[in-house]
Amino acid sequence: MIRLIACLRRGKSISYQEFRKYWAGLSCAGLIDETATVLKPVRNARNLCLHAGANIKIMESRGSNEPCDGIIEWRWEIATNPAPLLDTHRAQSLIPERQAYRGQFVDFDLSPLSFCRGLTSVS
Prior knowledge:
alpha+beta
């Protein structure tokens, strides 16, 4: 299983509550759904990170930065070359739409994006 994971941090000028409004909005869900039609993952997920007491205690005990605010995950069964998927009219038209929308509430420079390989775990 190949995963692409984006850990998104809210923009410096907005509150966590404002981030949540954008994140929960139909525009966000719609863009993610449309992106899925282009990238063709077997699964994708949009998760809101909790700003709960337990996360804050973990952050403070480790001396780490605040947790990210949201996570988007895309999964594929096998690694494929994404270039043909991205070289379509719809894929190219989604790029400025996504950039404009996320620019309203995400600090993209502080939001890491990584490909990972999922391993089977034994319980």
